[in-house]
Amino acid sequence: MSERKLPTIYTCFPGGKHKVLTMSYDDGKLEDRRLVSIFNKYGIKGTFHLNSGLEMDTRIPTSEYQELYKGHEVSCHTLTHPTIARCPMEQVVSQVLDDRKNLEAIMGYPVRGLSYPNGSYSKEIINALPSLGIRYARTVTSTMSFAMPENFLEWNPTCHHNKNLLELGQQFVDLFKKQYLYMMYVWGHSYEFTNQNNWELMEDFCKLVGKRDDIWYATNIEIVDYLDAAKRLQYTADCSHVYNPSAASVWICVNDTNFIELKGGTMTELPIGEWAK
After folding, report:
1. Per the CB 3.0–4.6 Å rule, which of 19, 82, 220, 272 could disulfide with 7?
2. How does DSSP assign 170-182, residue by residue?
């Protein structure tokens, strides 16, 4: 009995890319205005984790959120930024949900991400987040690598921008092995550039990594949603066909040469080779 040769099928990022860059900045200080302008200049996307319960002169007014962060993502950082691992769970729940409700009312879309305030969290908090509508949560533990996360609710970034940013950026740009998916995830606080008088660091980094054909520029939630959609793909047993039940497209690579867009709600026949005798 003849059978098809076993194909090699890889998940890709949109456009068939194998690298993704995402930026993550906390606290919503006034310096976000300058940071967003740099990101926009180089086609880079950021996720901004905000405390909607802290209105003060050093922070972006909530009235500016919708316009300033257009094209980027607004995400939770708790209502008032407590060290939540020390708080009772009743307070943790309120801190996350109240922040989420406020931000959603301002932005007009579901807010489903979080960065842990002061880097503080526990297993109990991680386990509670899905019931609060939180799909991912970022830590402050840098991996100094470009590996994809194992758990989006304990999402370790590549680096803080003060830790070998340009060196890691060059390594990321130079990555070429397309059998892997790579992610560079940078985090920090925009006010740190003012405090340390080193805005040129972010300008140089964005100039290095921005507007490149082989990098997908995405917010945190866009990465999570895309990979969730990729996991929902339904392949036939011989991998000759695949159905995409999601609304959004997913990209795959077949046998290293065929980059295919699987459009939402469609069945696609894959070019997996001739029948083997």
Report:
1. 272
2. HHHHH---TTS-E
User: Where among 185, 213, 241 does a domain terminate?
Assistant: 213
pTM for this structure? Answer: 0.95
The rounded radius of gyration (Å) of the Cα atoms in the chain is 20
Which domain, by its residues, includes 169? 18-213
CATH classification at residue 101: 3.20.20.370
Predicted confidence (pLDDT) per residue in 228-275, tens digit: 999 999 999 999 999 999 999 999 999 988 999 999 999 999 997 654
Q: Which residues contact 69 (CB under 8 A, 6 or more apart)?
A: 32, 36, 48, 107
Handedness of CA 170, 172, 178, 179 (dihedral sign): positive
Structure tokens given for 115: 């960065």
Alpha carbon distances (Å) from 3 to 9, 135, 185, 237, 257: 17, 41, 43, 12, 22
